[in-house]
Design goal:
Elements (H helix, E strand, L loop, with lengths): L5 E11 L2 E2 L2 E2 L3 E13 L5 H15 L2 E2 L13 H17 L3 E11 L2 E6 L2
Parallel strand pairs: 1-5
Antiparallel strand pairs: 1-4, 2-3, 4-6, 6-7
Length: about 120
Amino acid sequence: MENETYRLTFFLNATHMVTIDGKDSSIHPHTFEINCFIKSQKFTAFEIMENSINQILNQLNNQYLNELEAFKNIVPTLENLTRLLYRAISANLGSVGCKLVELEVAESPVRTFIIKEN
């Protein structure tokens, strides 16, 4: 049996500042590349999946992540951003009958964090 998966790619422009080992970085921008791998038991139009994901991404686009409520108690690292997106996108896709099975978020061409379903 085939393993069929959609891959949708999005871009998110945002700035952030991280504190690692007590040291603050400068505020800096990223164009995050976001790859969503999605399964659906039935035909789902691309537009439905894209709209569901964009509902989440539009809240973050062109924002300073550190000032958002979602990052009030966590540092907006690549890893934490990916975890937040995975939970939010999973919930939105679930509401349209789809399942997010993998999420890749890259802050540069050589730095990517990936979450896969178990």
